[in-house]
Design goal:
By secondary structure, this protein is an alpha/beta fold. It has 11 helices and 13 strands. Bound molecules: coenzyme A (COA).
């Protein structure tokens, strides 16, 4: 059986750091409230004019250098993002041109915080049907849709993301083992952007009403996220006859430390099994999971063949889990 293996990972975050103390000067908030309610201390913010494709190109360039893969070898580029450079063309097309992937096709995928999981499944399906090299990106420029006068949302999100290289393997010690992926559109009211789509195109009125920013009913999202992310993590382990202690690293979506703690506790993970980097980056939406995976690989918290559980919950609602054995790492 052919499985899709992650043979490389790289990430990118913008240089500019926005701390809780910086936010204290912008909205009625304080470091103590933000840290105790969310676990976030700082987040990154893209430079003026720096878009999702620019950040993706930085991550992919590093990925190609480190794996020794040439851009022209790439068969497809899938980009999980809710902040594309433009509504169209796709960010994937812009990336293709910038990196010179002249044999690739690709597309953007809108799955919000679960987008990278959905894109991994899509990429794996391409690998299982004949593609040899697929780049899967999770990236978001959340600062482009944040209202920095709204303390309910602007403290939560940051910019950044990463990319993985998928390749086929027949070795059972590596590759994506299983996934559980779900959507529930009844959650749309709780987390969305009101204008700028076909329902409510941009007008002076929509801009004046600040409708091109994230709207969130934080409490509703919090309740669902803490239950569903835990359940879907437990479910995938049970389905595949694994126990919590078999997992080398659990990489949960980083939206709120309290959600992560609840999910980890419910699923039975010890602290040292759980990746936590929300303090540095906040919620980078589609970028969070590849950013987390890159961190654990670079810091050698995992090695080839280790069991990795990814889980996320986000707008839609969307949620899910992906279970995989990391590697075999391709080295240039
Ligand atoms: N600084 C200070 N006070 C703030 C604040 C801020 N940045 N943001 C909100 N508050 C206030 C509220 O106005 C409220 O005041 P009130 O009681 O006078 O109305 C109070 O703090 C408590 O707000 P509440 O909404 O109960 O806080 P909370 O504990 O639910 O935390 C979130 C709010 C947003 C951090 C939390 O609900 C959350 O993380 N939700 C899910 C986020 C998420 O997962 N989003 C992305 C999808 S993946």
């Amino acid at each position: 059986m052919i499985r899709a293996a992650i043979t490389g990972v790289a990430s990118y975050v913008p240089e500019k750091v926005l701390t809780n103390f910086d936010l204290e000067k912008m909205v009625d908030t304080n470091d103590e409230w933000i840290v105790s309610r969310t676990g976030i201390r700082e987040r990154r913010v893209a430079a003026k004019g720096e878009a999702s494709s620019d950040m993706s190109v930085k991550a992919i360039t590093k990925l190609l250098e480190e794996t020794g893969v040439k851009a022209e070898e790439i068969d497809a580029i899938i980009v999980a993002t809710i902040t594309p450079d433009m509504v169209f063309p796709s960010t994937a097309a812009l990336i293709q041109e910038k990196i010179g992937a002249n044999k690739a096709w690709g597309y953007d995928l809108s799955g919000a915080c679960s987008g990278f999981l959905f894109a991994l499944k899509s990429g794996a399906a391409l690998i299982q049907t004949g593609h040899k090299k697929v780049i899967v990106v999770g990236i978001d420029t959340m600062s482009s849709i944040l209202d920095y006068t709204d303390r309910n949302t602007c403290i939560l999100f940051g910019d950044g993301g990463g990319a993985v290289l998928l390749e086929p393997t027949e070795d059972e010690n590596y590759g994506i083992i299983d996934e559980i992926l779900l959507i529930d559109g009844s959650g749309a009211d709780a987390l969305h952007m009101k204008a700028g789509g076909s329902r409510k195109p941009a007008t002076h009125e929509t801009v004046d009403a600040r409708e091109h920013y994230i709207y969130q009913d934080g409490k509703s999202v919090f309740k669902r996220a803490s239950i569903d992310m835990a359940n879907v993590s437990l479910e995938i382990l049970e389905k595949n006859d694994f126990k919590a202690e078999d997992v080398d690293i659990f990489i949960p979506h980083q939206a709120n430390k309290r959600i992560i703690d609840m999910a980890a506790r419910r699923a039975g993970f010890k602290d040292n099994q759980v990746l936590l980097n929300i303090d540095k980056y906040g919620n980078t939406t589609g970028g969070t999971l590849p950013l987390g995976l890159d961190e654990v690989v670079r810091e050698k918290r995992i090695k080839d063949g280790d069991l990795v559980l990814l889980a996320a919950f986000g707008a839609g609602y969307t949620w899910g889990s992906v279970l995989l054995r990391y590697g075999p790492s391709r080295k240039a």
